[in-house]
Amino acid sequence: MAAFEGLTSRLQNVFGKLRGKGKVSEDDVNEAMREVRLALLEADVNFKVVKDFIAKVKERAIGQEVMKSFTPGMVVVDIVNKEMTELMGGTQSKLAKASKPPTVIMMAGLQGAGKTTTSGKLARLLQKSNHKPLLVAGDIYRPAAIKQLQVLGEQIKVPVFSLGDKTSPVEIARQAMQQAKENGNDYVIIDTAGRLHIDEALMEELKQIHEVTKPDEVLLVVDAMTGQDAVNVAQSFHEQLELTGVVLTKLDGDTRGGAALSVKAVTGRPIKFAAMGEKIDALEPFHPDRMASRILG
Ligand code: GDP
After folding, report:
1. Of 108, 116, 200, 209, which residue is least crowded by CB atoms under 10 Å?
2. Could you give the 3-state DSSP secondary structure of residue 214?
3. Per-residue pLDDT tens over the stretch 29-40
4. 111 marked ligand binding residue
5. How many angstroms separate the alpha carbon of residue 130 from the centre of ligand 1?
6. Cβ neighbours of residue 38 closer than 8 Å, sequence gap 6 or more
7. Burial, 67: exposed, middle or buried (Cβ in 10 Å; 0-12, 13-18, 19+)?
8. Mean pLDDT calculated for residue range 142-158
9. Is the peptide bond before 270 cis (omega within 30 degrees of 0)?
10. CA of 74 to the centre of ligand 1 (A)
11. Which residue among 111, 115, 117 is best mutated to probe the pocket of ligand 1, counting the most ligand atoms within 8 A of its Cβ?
């Protein structure tokens, strides 16, 4: 995958050497882990996350069982794979469902992270499994955000609830809930405003939307390309909003995507979806095991 190309080729190099060895000494493992550590740091994985990760792998890899196995190099690689899967959440984390419809999904994130696009993609995914989503145009500040959501809605034939840009997003959310109930929509996806940086007024507004709609999911949309900043953003949002999950976008981009590996560890919230392109169908449920295998190449 583009976002992990650099990391993948470096790890393949390290593991190629390990796999080739008949016997693996403690020194070999230490040397390999030193290289893995550097590769992860260079890919922009959070420093503390890397430290814990390497410690865990070493703890499992340096032991009699592994050293005595017939293929110790492969066993070590397998341990790295399993720990990386754990790092990204272990098992797939599905969307929550309200006991009584509609299930409400609130999207949050910085401007440009991909909230509006992802809202449309998520509606598309739900529609494909025979659900009836309602999209809500709650980003009234970014010029063109409403129109953008309406165009997406038209493209996939999903209704978009909008009251223009003169009504407050809290009121829009309140009326959208009403409309969803009247029209029998079983999912409500609320696109919200983002700023370039986190600010108090924005957080206050998001909290009020939360209060009014009582969302089953609060998904933070994170641009996987924003490096270490993505982790700080996730942490700040989580402190204020009680996130339930994360959507990683732009994994098709060609810069370092290592911050993606840190988000779960830092917020404790699972990555639920991954976006890999601008097209409406470019959103997939996130599978930590598959992602680990893709990263390891
Ligand atoms: P918002 O401000 O958070 O609502 O962000 P938008 O949804 O408007 O997205 C910002 C830009 O990122 C747009 O040009 C999108 O087409 C683009 N974008 C969103 N998701 C992806 C993705 O997964 N891959 C790529 N390459 N571009 C994306």
Report:
1. 200
2. coil
3. 899 999 999 999
4. yes
5. 25
6. none
7. middle
8. 96
9. no
10. 39
11. 117
